[in-house]
Design goal:
With about 325 residues, the chain is α/β, with parallel strands linked by helices. It is built from eleven helices and eleven strands. The protein binds 6-O-phosphono-beta-D-fructofuranose.
């Protein structure tokens, strides 16, 4: 029987910990006697034939690096029936009988389509946003939050010196998880997320004035990207309270940097699980975390799941930010 070959790619926005997942896929695959190809720049690499066989040493010295050594892309050309077919034909020519796709929901839709074209795929949730419904954790989330926390701590220093209010936007697309946890960690006076309706008077101004009446002079307001409008919010706060206010959008700094321990460990365990599935020719799965344990789901089932926002934690944040 010929040697089994699999491929691994990273797709969509990069996330710290993707390299740890790639490393785990390569080393697990090789330890099981497989050939492992790295595909460059997401699904584009399958269209352009941009692949390279990786060996044990190809993935040395990457576990601690941010970004992705395989590069990444969003690939509109792949997202057509012809694109998927071309990618599947390329896999067959190369002898690849399974692909590990590290990315978010969009990347998993691509993995489902490639599976339907005859190439079994397994997804690993790799995104800073923590917005994959089937998994309570996505690789990159912890690092991004720690980066955001460090940045807001610095902003707090200057806000304190000037008795100002700083309104800080953190990433997360339509998901408020980065904002919620970072907001708690930095002691924000208010946290605005897309999952919970807000009223600026009630949820921001009244809280600032209440805090001010007990002696507080500087304020941090954390706003999720899905809420946005930080400049408008800062102007509104200044007009209504007289407190000098500044807006900061943290932006892509949150996507970089060396992954935290949590991201390295989760990525390694998920990478291992993905290859174990492909070893048994099981595709169309997404690896996920449930109650702290690594599990896997059918991709279609996973894509249809609804995310549950942690309203209890949100209410706790509200209670203790007085
Ligand atoms: O999905 C990760 C993410 O960083 C989101 O938080 C953000 O909305 C988006 O990607 C930004 O994408 P781009 O890198 O294309 O600007």
């Amino acid at each position: 029987m010929s040697q089994k070959a699999i491929a691994v790619l990273t797709s969509g926005g990069d996330a710290p910990g993707m390299n740890a997942a790639v490393r785990a896929v390569v080393r697990t695959g090789i330890s099981k006697g497989m050939k492992v190809y790295g595909v460059y720049r997401g699904y584009n690499g399958l269209l352009a034939g941009d692949v390279k066989e990786l060996n044990l040493r190809s993935v040395s010295d990457i576990i601690h690096r941010g970004g992705t050594v395989l590069y990444t892309a969003r690939s509109p050309r792949y997202n057509t029936p012809e694109g998927v077919k071309q990618a599947a034909d390329f896999c067959r020519e190369l002898g690849v009988s399974g692909v590990v796709v590290i990315g978010g929901d969009g990347s998993f839709r691509g993995a489902r389509d490639l599976t339907n074209e005859g190439i079994p795929c397994v997804g690993i949730p790799g995104t800073i946003d923590n917005d994959i419904a089937c998994s309570e954790y996505t690789v990159g989330f912890d690092t991004a939050m720690n980066t955001a926390m460090e940045m807001v701590d610095k902003i707090r220093d200057t806000a304190q010196s000037h008795d100002r209010c700083s309104v800080v936007e953190v990433m997360g697309r339509r998901c408020g998880d980065i904002a919620l946890q970072t907001g708690i960690a930095v002691g924000a006076a208010a946290i605005l997320v897309p999952e919970v309706e807000y009223d600026l008077e009630r949820d921001v101004i009244a809280r600032i004035l209440e805090n001010q009446s007990t002696g507080k002079k500087h304020f941090i307001i954390v706003v999720a990207e899905g809420v946005g409008k930080v400049n408008e919010i800062a102007t509104y706060i200044q007009t209504r309270t007289g407190i000098e206010s500044r807006a900061t959008i943290l932006g892509h700094v949150q996507r970089g940097g060396s992954p935290t321990l949590r991201d390295r460990v989760v990525a390694s365990a998920m990478g291992h699980r993905a290859v174990s599935l492909l070893e048994q020719d099981i595709g169309n799965r997404v690896v996920a975390m449930k109650n702290g344990v690594i599990v896997d789901y059918d991709i279609t089932e996973a894509l249809n799941m609804k995310r549950v926002f942690d309203k209890e934690l949100y209410d706790i944040a509200h209670t203790i930010s007085i």
